[in-house]
Amino acid sequence: MPTFTSTLNGVGGNGAKAYQCIGCDGLITHSDRLIIIGGTNRHLFVNPTGVECDIHTFYSCPGAIAVGEATEAHTWFSGYCWRMAFCRHCGQHLGWHYEAVSRYERPLEFWGILIAQLKSM
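Now predict its structure.
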């Protein structure tokens, strides 16, 4: 199990909204860090077990930590592998961190965070 810390460097944002973990109220990111992937920053997918996953994409989530070995299996974003993303404060599952398979892909990385795991202020 990963170690979760509450020390955040560079968590400040100028976004209109601050997004917090639904489990512990820890700051995850801000709306000025939303990133458009495939024409939008909101995506709805169904995972292999049939669960709907409604996510926002962010270029930075200082309040999240990526855990595990990256995989391309069942990726929702062609050209990207993923790892699980958890709240840095409490360990709540938040979504996924995506990393480009090729160094030529842009962006090189981004976060897909479940909207149901966030609350906004």
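Confidence is low (pLDDT under 50) at residues 1-11.
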